[in-house]
Amino acid sequence: MIDILLVVTGINAVISAFLMIVSWKALRKGISIVKYIFLYFALILASSLIISLQYFGINYFQSYTQLMLQVIDLLMLILVYAGIMRGK
User: Fold this and answer.
1) Positive or negative CA dihedral for 49, 50, 53, 55?
2) Is the Cβ–Cβ distance between 33 and 82 less than 8 Å?
3) Number of domains composing the chain
4) pLDDT higher than 60, residue 83
5) CA distance linking residue 44 with residue 88, whole number of Å
6) Distance CA 40, CA 22 (A)
7) Distance between CA atoms of 2 and 75, rounded to whole angstroms?
């Protein structure tokens, strides 16, 4: 049976990759605020990849995986804050 964590992580990775492409196209059109959104989705994709690799037993970071996920969450919060402040 398929684990629900793997399904949710896969959906998360696909949607964030699609939204990264959309954000990249908007960024190339000259909308500068979108760079924060692009980086946000890139971090979500990185987080999903780390979780997927860990699920399949490929764990390059061994004891630092949880710390890396927390750092990625912190960077996402900083990007959201920077995007909000820049948008004013």
Assistant:
1) negative
2) no
3) 1
4) yes
5) 25
6) 13
7) 31
